[in-house]
Amino acid sequence: MDTNGFDAISLNNVVKLYGNFVALKGVTFRIPDGGKYALLGPNGAGKTTTLKLIAGLLKPDHGEVRVYGLDPISDLESKKIIGYLPEDATPYRNLSVRENLEYIAALRGIDDVKDKVEEMLDLLKLREYERAKVARLSRGNLQKLAIALSLIHRPKVLLLDEPLNYLDIPTQEEVISLLNKLGRTMLVSTHIMAVAGRLTDKIIMISRGIVIWSGSFEELKGMANEGEPIEKVVARLMA
Ligand SMILES: Nc1ncnc2c1ncn2[C@@H]1O[C@H](COP(=O)(O)OP(=O)(O)O)[C@@H](O)[C@H]1O
Ligand SMILES: [Mg+2]
């Protein structure tokens, strides 16, 4: 598959309706290969909708979504290059950690299932829990498993929907350092500025279904008045 020369992700004037409600009102942005971007916005802004469109789980009503030039709805090749962590990821509760990894690896048609499972157990520090049933895992370990399931096919692009939700501070730190080590294209949705700053270097800010600002953290800091915290700048842009 030749994916060179394409943006990792591009949205061109994307509109998404739920019934009569317009959730996305013409969203346009592009993320280059290797870019680490935050999709920042308040609850209800349209972050989850945007990620589902990129993951090919929703179809745009208007406009175009591309992942390395592929249409995530109709080009099945795109499934191989996209890793998606849903907002409330739910691994199979009655399977163990290892069984979840083996099952998803098999479903994804990975050749070296055994090696990949071992790699994920080590990467996410889940080996200690490999035989534990998901139903008995802590919230933090459940989230680590969900991240492992989104990574197991080595996707080129990672879509993470509020990846630090519900995690205690030590587990947040663990997940942050893990994600920072991965070194691949990432789009991370969050409503928390501090989370965006720890995981990414560029921001796409959305509110009420439109992109209201995009740029680097440096640019955002440059917009602050003397002594003003960056959160205030964000709040002002979103008002
Ligand atoms: N399945 C749905 N049916 C109707 N409205 C929805 C549905 N999913 C989301 N919405 C609405 O679309 C808007 C954007 O939702 P969402 O993408 O989940 O935002 P975010 O992830 O930023 O909180 C919200 O107003 C939400 O209530
Ligand atoms: Mg959401």
From TrEMBL:
MF-aspect GO terms: ATP binding; ATP hydrolysis activity
Transmembrane residue ranges: none
Keyword list, A-Z: ATP-binding, Nucleotide-binding, Transport
Source organism, top-level taxon: Archaea
Coiled-coil stretches: none
Cited InterPro entries: AAA+_ATPase, ABC_transporter-like_ATP-bd, ABC_Transporter_VariousFunc, P-loop_NTPase
Positions of the ABC transporter domain: 9-233
Matching PANTHER family: ABC TRANSPORTER ATP-BINDING PROTEIN ALBC-RELATED
Name assigned to this protein: ABC-type multidrug transport system, ATPase component
UniProt source species: Caldisphaera lagunensis (strain DSM 15908 / JCM 11604 / ANMR 0165 / IC-154)
